[in-house]
Amino acid sequence: MLKHTKLVLSALSACALLCSCVATVKQGPVTSAQVAVAMDSQTVAAQKTADQMAKLWLPAKTTFAVGMAADPNDGFSTALLNELRQKGYALVECYSYQAPNTLENRSGKAKGIEVISMAETLAKGASKLTWDFSALGPCTQGEACFYRLTVYVNDTQLSRAYQLSADQLMPVGAWSLGGGNDNQ
């Protein structure tokens, strides 16, 4: 019995150790303007991203669980969500929003909007969708600036580099696909 207990405790300890080593990508609950690029260029990048995603994940058969709300000032995120909806993807926005106490909210209690939980949505077969669109280094006036766009669908990463030159955002190379193999 003692030998069995030691074996179980060793297994639990190993499991706890391994679980603590797993790295996770955390995305805030609300996107923010990620790149200092004209809105029309961000919209074009979102369209190209949605087109590429449609080649990998079937629009009418894929539900994405989005763990963040698009800030109206975040042109890429807003355009990407709109493009995905137009292509026929089901999007479940899994976040909660807590309105601050303001003069408009005179009750003294913050008003909250609860949306379906990420865990519940993923349990129903949805794929987790997040993204990162950011500069690869400092951008200086008059010089080309490079950006990396990475879309995460569960463990799969879809990435592409972009160059901003003369206020135009242009793809630098082909899309790269990495990570897990959860394509449908």
Q: How does this structure look, described?
A:
The protein has 184 residues and is of the alpha+beta class. The chain contains 4 helices and 9 strands, in the order ααβαβββαβββββ. It has one domain. The protein has helices spanning 2-21, 39-56, 75-87, 118-123; strands at residues 63-66, 90-93, 97-98, 112-113, 127-135, 145-153, 156-165, 168-171, 176-179. Strands 1, 2, 5, 6, 7, 8 and 9 form a 7-stranded mixed β-sheet that branches. It is globular and about 50 Å long.
Q: Provide the domain count.
A: 1
Structural class: alpha+beta
Helix content: 25-40%
Distance between the first and last residues' Cα: 47 Å
Number of helices in the DSSP assignment: 4
Give the helix/strand layout.
Layout: H1 2-21, H2 39-56, E1 63-66, H3 75-87, E2 90-93, E3 97-98, E4 112-113, H4 118-123, E5 127-135, E6 145-153, E7 156-165, E8 168-171, E9 176-179
Parallel strand pairs: 1-2, 1-5
Antiparallel strand pairs: 3-4, 5-6, 6-7, 7-8, 7-9
